[in-house]
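Example: Pyrroloquinoline-quinone synthase.
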Amino acid sequence: MTAVAPEEFVGELRALAPRYWDSHPFHLRMHAGELCKDELRLWAANRWYYQRCIAQKDAAILSNCPLPDVRRQWRDRIVWHDGTRPGEGGAENWIRLAEAVGLSREEVLDERHVLPGVRFAVDAYVNFARTRPWVVAVASGLTEMFSGALMRKRLAALREQYPWIAEEGFAYFTHRIQAVSGEGQATVDIVVEHSVTREQQLEAIAALSFKCDVLRALLDTVDYYAGKS
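Written out as structure tokens, the predicted fold is:
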């Protein structure tokens, strides 16, 4: 099969937007102010497991990539999540959010609240990055194309609907909104440049679809158990 033009390929990737988790019922309830404190804590504790593993996912991509230019660009993602020293980075900011909704640092770090379905979905994502071709794994991260709008909406909703959350708890979102302000264009450029056959383009589309499934599976699990509380 002949590869389609870059514009058409990017359009196929963007067409997956309805599969993103922005319209998930749990997110809709969150934005409407309908979550109780225990539900927010369950969400924060489980989302932590995803945040903790993102740097490992990116390190797996880095280890599989033979191109120095791409590796130099990609390593910044690990630094963003892990920081350059203890007490910095996106993962640390997520812990601050968890503390702001009433969890202790200890119970976040020991992962006592992480649900089996969440662990299974996130581990599958990390394993995907370890075992698939590096450009396919990069393509799985193109949910960046959709995440900026969701984060802006979530930050506004959390501030309005849950005024008891201290402002310092929102550091993850304020920093991440800036990081994804380009809607993943740098990642799109990498995927387009290195997906030179139609088969590779279709693999990239399938990878992004898989990532959307991972995110929705995470939230499906949290939503189910939140309903049991």
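The domain at 41-228 is CATH 1.20.910.10 (Heme Oxygenase; Chain A).
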